[in-house]
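Troubleshooting log. The previous run stalled partway through. Resubmitting the same two chains, unchanged.
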Amino acid sequence: MSATRRDLTRRLWLLLVLGATTTVVLFSAYRGVHDDTVPLVSSSTPGILAVDTAKNALQQAHEAVDGSGPQGDATGEFHTQISVAHQSIALAASENVTGPSDRHTLQTVTGLITVYSVWVERAGKEPNTSLRDAYLYYALQGRNDILDRLDELRNEQLNVARKQAAFPWPLWLGWSAVLVLCLALCVALMEAQRFARRRFRSAVHPSLLAATVLCVTGVAALGWFTLRAHTAMADSLAELSKTRAADDIPEAGADVEGYMANAGFWASLSDWILIGGVLLMALTVVGLWPRISEYRFKVPR
Amino acid sequence: MCIVLLVAGAVAGVRWAQSWKGSVTVLANWSGGEREQFEKAIEQFEENHRIDVIYQGSSALSQVLAADLAAGTQPDVAVLPEPGELMAYAAEGRLRPLDGLFEAGDYDRVWMPKVAGEDGRKRTYWLPVKTGLKSMVWHSGSLPRNEIAEIAGEPDTWCLGMESGATSGWPGTDWVEDILLQQAGPKVYEKWATGDLEWTDKRVRKAWTTWGEMAGAGDGARAERVLKANYGQDCSHQRLEHQGSFRDTAWKEADGDFLHSAEVIPEAQQNSQHWEVSGDLAAMLNATDEAKELIRYLADPGIELPDFTANKKAASPDSYDDPMKRKIGSILRDPKQQRCWDASDTMPPAMRNAFHEAVLHFLVSPEELDNQLELLESLRNDQGPAFPVCGSG
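Second attempt completed without errors. Output:
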């Protein structure tokens, strides 16, 4: 085998190994961030806001009966708010943010809301003031129990959201590896370009140049999308961490939706990393293989 | 590379070994200390079987369970103190039989009777996880017995609280039941609990009025206070408390002791050996392998469960370090004592709930007792529990 053929073959293998490794590491690092963007916006956020809505509804329901006097709530506000609470609990359960324990807590809360409503209704029908006060007191104790459980659930949901928005050390390691590998691949591509230009006296090898451009622009673009996704998730998390009044809940949901508007697009790009990696390796082969072939039958001088 | 692969393999192996191999959902009414005790007892199970126990505790147990069953999302195991409710669920085919999972002969029939399932066949449907003693009057321990009997007639002597979430009123039903048991005896008590005795019967009425006098029913300010006080409130050690064995920790701090409620209840039968008892009963609603494994674990006499076990093969009460626990445990296991289920726990849920409400009404308006008893009588169903309410052995 001629020295040139051997040098070219070695460079081709190095570029293919570097290309494949960079692709795999970039794919993993990208998925590590973007796999959590969609669940954060489509599950955790509505789950947390549904719990907020249920809490607010229960508070408003009790205000309606507490300030209504001995005749009970005549406005229907109590039943409206209880209905809102039930619907919100059902929505939170369907989002299933923290898994089976989440579902069981919400089932228990549904039962407790029923008990709470029964005490309030009994109070409304009770002519004796002492008993009426006692029933409302039992209802209040029950409501406080419900609110405590919802607070605990919300904290667990928020922990899930925090994990989704986090950038832990494996991701730092992954993205650092991506940068190092990308740099190494670009240097190797440029060195192969320089070697081929000197040996074959051609100005530039378009396919090797295209592979270099693909590597640089691809990693830069994906890095930029990842930075934007991470910032959007941090902003969303800050929004979800606030406690807010009932009227502000839809606005908070809209804000999170705004931050994460491109989450689906960003996440969908992960498959293109594999396609881009294959393309990069194909360009490398197209750039070097014809030269290697030229030396197939040449005897070293 | 080889080292990296080896380390990765080892980490994956450890993670696999540490991961849960399934889960079991448990619904019970324990909270606070009781929940901690259960979780402590269950840690060993989780460790040995790698099964995650997902626990939900609520005082609104009946309502939560009814909602879960209606939605088809029932827990795998539910622990209820009401055999009456469990019997109804067994008859509807909601419970899975426990036969074959453990040795049924390890428990007395009163704790673990065979009841009819949906097909009418009698099977075991619940396992007593822990038992409790009632008919107890707690005192500071320094008071002479005759003095206790003397001050027991003063309503202000008693620590009394009716608030208990969804089941508010049960401390009052315990009073009425216990008075009936001590005044009229187990036969009348059992007839009443099973729906064979009218609520308007003079012996039942007398139990109510006796309690009314002892508790000061009708005293406006006092009734208001009692209605809002929690059943587990701190009790001054100069006072008396008619509560079950679950209060032993609170009274032990004051070197407290208890005596049989018959010693303070007016016109109670002499030398009574009748005790009201309660139990937390585990029933299986989904016959998963994990749920069966948990039931087997709870029936193991070698496992240390909270409070007092009904398992005859478990260590004798004499082995308890705590003298108070020895005393209570001995009564619960003594074949000479007659133990009767808390009657309201054996009643159908609608009857039980009406009883709770009637007690609250009675505290405020004892003069309306007859109306309340007639209301309860209208709900009476003589198809009461088809299992023994009282028993010994």
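Takeaways: Residues 247 and 339 of chain B are 19 Å apart (CA to CA). Chain B has a mean pLDDT of 89.
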